[in-house]
Amino acid sequence: MALPLSYLLSLLLLVLLLPYSTTAQNSSNQYAGSSLIAQEKGSYWASPSSDFAFGFQQIGNGGYLLAIWFNNIPGKTIVWSANGDNLVPTRSKVELTKGGQLVLSDPTGTEIWSSPDDLGVVYAAMLDTGNFVLASQNGSHLWQSFDHPTNTMLPTQTMSLGSKLVAHYSERNYSNGRFQFQLQTDGNLVLQTLAYPLDYWSNTAYWESETVGSGFQVVFNEPGSICLTATNGSILTYISLNPVSKQDYYQRAVMEYDGVLIHYFYRKSSTNTSNSWSNFPTLPPNICNIGEAIGSGACGFNSYCELGDNGRPNCNCPKGYTFIDPNDVMKGCRQNFLPQSCDEASSKTDQFDLSEMGRVNWPTGDYGRYDGVTEDWCREACLGDCFCAVAVFGYGRCWKKKIPLSNGKKDPNDVGTKVLIKVRKDNSTFNPSGADLKKKNHSTVRLILSVLLGSSTFLNLLFLLAGFLLAFHFKYWKLKARNPYPVTPVMNLRSYTYEELIEATNGFKEELGRGAFAKVYKGVLEYEDRKLVAVKRLNNMEREGDMEFNAEVSAIGRTNHRNLVQLLGFCNEGEHRLLVYEFMSNGSLASFLFGGSRPYWYQRIQIALETARGLFYLHEECNTQIIHCDIKPQNILLDDSFSARISDFGLAKLLKADQTRTTTGIRGTKGYVAPEWFKNMPVTIKVDVYSFGILLLELICCRKSFEAEAKDEDQMILANWAYDCYNDKKLDLLVENDEEAIDDMKRMEKYVMIAIWCIQEDPSLRPTMKKVVQMMEGSIEVSVPPGSSSFISSM
């Protein structure tokens, strides 16, 4: 019997569409062997109603996030993620293995994230509640995303004692930030700041329920209200009382990156033409009132917080300051003028003035207070003090504040004090705009013309002036036009001429540092908005050919990580080989660590963790694996916010094979060199692990790895002394008189154990930098390291 034509057409259409139906799978459980691939078309498992989906979301034009999101609304709002601090590339895969474990791996097969194993999981499912579960044969949930929230809570979800929502770093950066919403184990519900980038509480709770001993569970009930309950189920307090219906609205509660907990709702019907989320009143009532004893407050250092109409903070810079990163305003502000030197202050110059700001204050961090004084006295006292950045005067009192300013806020009710910001009168900036330069040039020309017009020799000098202006214009045009080496398109590296870099460094005049293979000079790129740079002039190269050098530089230029110094460009002209890096304003870790005053303990451990993350990237995450070969404090630089940046990475590839940095005939620096260099063994990434272990001990103890003038001979070699102190349970000797470190002895002991693992003589015993990062962050335990016979400290 002939089939109806309409049936045949339907069957043909189904066959044609079949290949395209695999990227989204609905209403079914996923069994062993099921997998999803990260790709541009999207790859996910949807819930039965399609309200939620589990799979890969591309973040901007970058990598992919394994996530759960609202699937039926524009924007696909993400509510949970597995790898926020480690986005994966295209062709990465998540698979439910035969053992019932959910495993995320990159295209090389390296595991990025996984659920617990040996649970007896039979299938996985995306539920209509937004909960992704791994279940047993009888349907019981053995693992569920609701038990491991990131920054979001959904209706029907609960938080038990110890659970928390951790804010993202920023709106599009899904790694952990510096705020969290936590139900503490004592029953108190708090909003608190974290000691970013670490994930422990920094003792600043800026909102709390005051339910110590009675709080038991945070419940986001099905109608959509959020409340804190006691053990008997009674409601202790409402976080948000919801007046909208579950049937008509999607809902979520989010610990936002700026420290505000927000209850959002979104109308499901087609009448929602705005395609945006609305929200109920937020917690805390005023985020700007955060007052951190250690930390910046609601916004970054040197900025101030102004409460927005939506209850969220607007971060602003005071007069004379600009954002460190306009794309990350919570990073804080910096002075856009040359700071006052103590020579200027002592010589009573009038280069600075005090600019008044109304109703803005930084209420903590005073280093001087004076009673019974006048406003004029307060002004003069600040102008004559090179440490004074801000003076506050009110009620006959004067307060002095220095950089960095913290806990800044705008208070409309503060009418009794004046805030006086010190700024340079001539507006000399680190990065003056092109408009300012142009205005200055025009003023100069007008002055010259006025003098010439009043002179009897005007006609003679006019020709000289015309010639000068013509030459200047030609030179300016030549500088703007010349660029025989194009910008490298893959990583946007600029190829500079040698003449350009001579002019940028003023003839290589200001030397920042030197080594056996290079010297580094400070430079200013005049025609790139006077950008400050560090120009590294290399002595000898591994290869002499232009193409080979360019290829090696391209490999370095493709690296991109926040804990690496960025390569901006290079020069490969004749015998000249130079590299142009971003300028690091706070110099090297060596100067910071071994200078006059001891850095804070939490600054040191932050620098240690950031350095470890940078090395992990070089070893395992960048396109071409890079072994640094010379990790030491001199090669760790500090940016405007004192974040660690590894420098000189990749230079080992560029140096001549016989070029060394010590008299040992090996690459590296005395005191940081791994033992295998001495034994003619193959060199692997583990040489960097060894060097990092020594560096970590230096950061912990705030002293050099070898001190010939140590008061005790046993303390001369830091690695040996640290092990002895660990073995004898006398770790307090390593941080004598460092109260912050002593108060954090458990963490300090853990870091010493990690360092001992890193400096094992046998490279196979040393952990990878990935494992080092995990141990430092607390995601895996640190086992007891082997005895002292298993490691060597090289001199």
From TrEMBL:
Annotated protein name in UniProt: Receptor-like serine/threonine-protein kinase
Query: Which residues take part in binding ATP?
Result: K536
**Record flagged with keyword rRNA-binding:** no
Can you give the residue ranges of the Bulb-type lectin domain? 21-147
Q: Tell me where in or outside the cell this protein is found.
A: Membrane
What organism does the UniProt record list as the source? Quercus rubra (Northern red oak)
Q: Where are the transmembrane segments?
A: 447-472
What membrane topology term does the record carry?
A: Single-pass type I membrane protein
Which molecular function term from Gene Ontology is one that the record holds? Answer: protein serine/threonine kinase activity
Q: Which reaction does it catalyse?
A: L-threonyl-[protein] + ATP = O-phospho-L-threonyl-[protein] + ADP + H(+); L-seryl-[protein] + ATP = O-phospho-L-seryl-[protein] + ADP + H(+)
Please provide the record's keywords in A-Z order.
Answer: ATP-binding, Disulfide bond, EGF-like domain, Glycoprotein, Kinase, Lectin, Membrane, Nucleotide-binding, Receptor, Serine/threonine-protein kinase, Signal, Transferase, Transmembrane, Transmembrane helix
Family assignment from sequence similarity: Belongs to the protein kinase superfamily. Ser/Thr protein kinase family.
Task: Please state every residue range assigned to the domain named Protein kinase.
Answer: 506-792
